[in-house]
Design a protein that fits this description.
The chain has 457 residues and is α/β, with parallel strands linked by helices. 43% of the residues lie in helices and 11% in strands. The structure holds zinc ion (ZN).
Length: 457
């Protein structure tokens, strides 16, 4: 009875389309960090940027291509030589490079934006693909604004690029205009009419202007698309892109309707979402499906009661299946370094031993002060500890080894700490969390106690 489940390629464009959305720009280090998390998440393709757009974008794509080796690394290019050359320059050291070329095909874009005829459009697309193919085996083509392109003409362009060597045909609903049944029909039309289509992968790239990006992407898959382009938290131009976590979990929770598989590691979803939000400073909408903080919160008494008796009464998936940390696990000062390390990982941070020690010292002081350390406290603590600065492990306060602190207690003064961005109530002799700094008050007692927890795990 078990039918073969088709494997869907997950193409993540958080670092390209997502990064283009207001307030979501990221620097090279941040992009690299997120790319490594996307790798852990198990996406198949990472679109790392648009190399000709800026030197920063170019360097980011190059850095990701050289460090992240498992997934395909894609770079975007307009359908012209300089763009494609620049993309290739950034990608050529990747283990699995892909050049992604796009050219608008709708009449409104051809007339008003590109000022070219349909014939010129076909020729330019095919030329660009031929050139990209001369550099890179893996070439994707996107007819921008495909959903507002006359289908007959769309098929003509697609046929030309398939003949020129494209290996993936991405169908973008650039303006978020289509609806599921219509988009599914378009994919079916393409499969029926484009010569050579059976040798290439059809992809869907949906925007959420009408709130249907995920539904449209799933409709495309049902009609035969085998790649979905999506972003973490659904970030992206305007109303955003189709959300990776929603597509993946729809397939997992409803295999009866969506008999497909992806390589995504569900348990890494929450960490990826948190990391993105932390890097960009853009919070996740609280009721956002899968990754919002209320997605698994049961406020109503009758729901709480049901969930405690059997989670399936109100939960269609468990928080653990998407990596949401068990909310019953509260970190306090008796939590060990191991537990802290695990929680940090769940929140999207992996630290080496030295960095974790550093975090742990601060955590113990904080726990001493506020008893229960919640995720937002921990995230702020991590952020404060890893504020960008010249040094590899910047510190907001100098951590003095316990013995030294005992001897030098009165003389120790904190390094001038930068102002916290979102401070807890801060007294004159406390750090960002209101925890007394070394050299003040009963620091002797604190330091002694701290030592016990520091190495006791
Ligand atoms: Zn897009």
């Amino acid at each position: 009875m078990t039918a073969e489940r088709a494997r869907i390629t997950v193409f993540d464009t958080t670092l390209r389309d997502g990064e283009q959305s207001p307030g979501c720009s990221m620097n090279r280090q941040e992009k690299l960090r997120l790319a490594q998390q996307l790798d852990r998440l198990g996406v198949d393709v990472i679109e790392a940027g648009f190399p000709i757009a800026s030197d920063g974008d170019f360097e980011s794509v190059k850095a990701i291509a050289s460090v992240v080796r498992r997934p395909i690394i894609a770079g975007l290019a307009r359908a012209c030589r300089p763009d494609i050359e620049r993309a290739w320059e950034a990608l050529k050291d990747a283990a699995r490079p892909r050049i992604h070329v796009f050219l608008a095909t709708s009449d409104i874009h051809l007339q008003y934006k590109l000022r070219i005829t349909r014939d010129q459009c076909v020729a330019q697309a095919a030329d660009a693909i031929r050139f990209a193919k001369s550099l890179c085996e893996d070439v994707e083509f996107s007819p921008e604004d495909a959903t507002r392109t006359e289908p007959e003409f769309l098929c003509r362009v697609l046929e030309a690029v398939v003949e020129a060597g494209a290996t993936t045909l991405n169908i973008p609903d650039t303006v978020g205009y289509t609806v599921p049944a219509e988009f599914g029909d378009l994919i079916t039309t393409i499969r029926q009419r484009v010569k050579g289509i059976e040798n290439v992968v059809i992809s869907a790239h949906c925007h959420n202007d009408l709130g249907m990006a995920v539904a449209n992407a799933l409709a495309a898959v049902a009609a035969g698309a085998r790649q979905v382009e999506c972003t973490i938290n659904g970030i992206g131009e305007r109303a955003g892109n189709a959300s990776l976590e929603e597509i993946v979990m729809a397939m997992r929770v409803r295999p009866d309707r969506f008999a497909y598989e992806t390589g995504v590691v569900g348990e890494q979803i929450f960490a990826a979402s948190q990391m993105l939000s932390e890097i960009t400073g853009v919070p996740v909408q609280p009721n956002k499906a899968i990754t919002g903080r209320n997605a698994f919160a049961h406020e109503a008494g009758i729901h709480q009661d049901g969930v405690l008796k059997n989670p399936l009464t109100y939960e269609i998936m468990t928080p653990q299946s998407v990596g949401v940390p068990d909310s019953k696990l509260v970190l306090g000062k008796h939590s060990g370094r191991h537990a802290l390390g695990i929680r940090c990982e769940q929140l999207g941070y992996q630290f080496d031993r030295r960095a974790l020690d550093d975090i742990y010292r601060r955590f113990v002081r904080l726990a001493d002060k506020i008893k229960h350390v919640e995720d937002h406290h921990l995230l702020e603590l991590i952020r404060d500890t890893h504020k960008p600065s010249g040094s590899a492990t910047p510190l907001i306060e100098k951590i003095v080894p316990p013995q030294a602190a005992v001897v030098n207690a009165p003389a120790v003064t904190p390094e001038s700490a930068p102002e916290p961005t979102k401070p807890f109530p801060v007294g004159p002799q406390t750090n960002a969390f209101g925890v007394p700094l070394p050299g003040h008050g009963d620091s002797h007692h604190e330091q002694t106690q701290q030592e016990d927890y520091l190495w006791g795990v």
